[in-house]
Fold this sequence. Notes:
Blueprint: H1 16-20, H2 26-44, H3 64-74, E1 80-86, H4 91-103, E2 109-114, H5 118-122, E3 131-132, H6 137-147, H7 159-162, H8 164-173, E4 178-181
Parallel strand pairs: 1-2
Antiparallel strand pairs: 2-4, 3-4
Helix pairs in contact: 2-6, 6-8
Amino acid sequence: MTVLAGEPDSLRPAGEWDGAAGFRTAGEAVRARRVEDERACGDLGARPVWLPFNDHQYPRGGDDDEVWDALETALRDAATVLVPGFPLMHPDHVWLAALVRERGLPGRRVGHYVEQPYAAAWTPGPTEDWEPAGAGALHRLTKLRACRRYASQLPLIAPEARSLLRVARYEAARGGEAVRWA
């Protein structure tokens, strides 16, 4: 699920990040990212879910209560929910993790995941209470293939984070993606 997926019909001029990716409007960026999401999720056998709120480049389009109501509705049948957990370098991830921590998700298993490519590029990794999700080599390769689908985004990431090989090595050394269960 992408909580801050944006509005595909928005005519708002592209924000700084979206403009750097070559988009003229926020809606154009949203539509392109949704195509990337569909392809990546297809690689993983998942179905994308997009909420209509905006990332930090734009006005959010709803207050915390409105976002929370939409999130709870979208998660009504979810038994397990993963939220950003480490290193929380992106402002939108910091906000979402804090919102979930404040309000909780009763009746669901909540895990905090290690965010890539941030962790592989700039941290040695979390040190305690994290466990590998147990992904094998084939699963990690499938994930990397899915990551490559985000062609509009990868060129904008700093060179040290752009390397999907770095992500693969980081996760292979730790037995896969790491999760800390709440």
